[in-house]
Amino acid sequence: MAQTVKINVTVNGKQYEREVEPRLLLSDFIRHDLGLTGTHVGCEHGLCGACTVLMDGEAVRSCTIFAVQADGHEIQTVESLGTPDNLHPIQQAFIEKHALQCGFCTPGFLMTLVDYLGDNPNPTEEEIREAIDGNFCRCTGYFNIIEAVKLAAQKMASH
Ligand code: FES
Ligand code: FES
Question: pLDDT tens digits for 122-134?
Fold first, then answer.
């Protein structure tokens, strides 16, 4: 049996103590060990952004981090954003602007944008394009995503 390491991680406000193999990726820990399958895995090479979560409030690609590196840290996944009756303003904006089709990329966009709009509440279109240039979407052509980010910024400003 492979050697394991004990880690303590807070995910979406809940504390977890788990034994993990040192090579286990944070994305696999979140999806398989914790069952939080809202975090998607596309490339597993840090390129597509689908696996983005927040670590201590900063957007990170969970496929490029080992679970042991999250020891003692706070992780937020897309499951923490809102509920069906009370969506996060960014989720609401994505719906209103039709910014998703298959939805595979959406959790990564949402988590990237939660971090980004928290720091940059009033971005220009150019800045929005830069903010999402590490998140790949194969369906939408990005136009509606950009419109959704503009709307989300407005919603968050009036919140
Ligand atoms: S799955 Fe992590 S960046 Fe693509
Ligand atoms: S909505 Fe399908 S990949 Fe973005």
Answer: 999 999 999 999 9
